[in-house]
Amino acid sequence: MNSNRTIFGGTIFSAIDPFYPILLDQYFKHQGILRTVAWLKTAHIDYIKPGRMDLLVSFRLKEEVLKEALHTIKHEGKVVKTFQTQVFDKKGTLCAVAHNEIYIRDLDFDFETYNKLSTSEEVENKQSKLY
C-alpha cells in the first residue's frame, strides 16, 4: 500500500509482467522446442481506478493463439506478440489494463538458412511480378 492507501502501480505491473512469456515458452517446450529465450519486450499499462483491495487477473491462451505462435516460431524462429490483461478488484471494477509485448526466440533455429530462403523467395516474387 502507498500513502493513498492504494496498491502501488508498480506492484500491479510486476504481478502481470512474467505470465505470458512463461506460459507460451512452456507450451513451446511441451511441443519440442526446448532451447528458447523469452522476455517481455515492451509494455504499457493504463491505471483506470485505484486498487484499494485484492485484485484479480486471469491469463488465458486460446488454442488458435497457441497454434499461430507455434507455427510462427517453427517457421520464423521467433515470436513477437502483444497480449492484453485486465485487472479487476473483488467487486468487479476495472482497475488497470496492460498491454504486454513478448518476445520468444528458438535458440536452435537456423536463421542463416531462413534468411537465404526469404531472400530467394522475395527475388522470385519480384521477378514474377515483372512478367
At CATH level 2, the architecture is Roll
Rg, alpha carbons: 20 Å
- Looking across the biggest beta sheet, what order are the strands in? 1-4-3-2
Strand and helix order: HHEEHEEH
Give the CA-based shape: elongated
Helix proportion of residues, in percent? Answer: 40-55%
Note the gap between the termini: 67 Å
CATH class membership: Alpha Beta
Mean pLDDT: 89
Question: Could you provide a short overview of the structure?
Answer:
This protein has 131 residues and is α+β, with helices and mostly antiparallel strands. The protein has helices at residues 9-16, 19-30, 63-76, 111-130, and strands at 36-47, 55-56, 78-89, 94-106. Strands 1-4-3-2 form a four-stranded antiparallel β-sheet, with helices on both faces.
What do you see in this structure?
There is one protein chain. With 131 residues, this protein is an alpha+beta fold. It has one domain: Thiol Ester Dehydrase, Chain A. The chain has 4 helices and 4 strands; from the N terminus they run ααββαββα. It has a 4-stranded antiparallel β-sheet, with helices on both faces. A hairpin with a 4-residue loop joins strand 3 (78-89) and strand 4 (94-106). The model has no long low-confidence stretch (mean pLDDT 89).
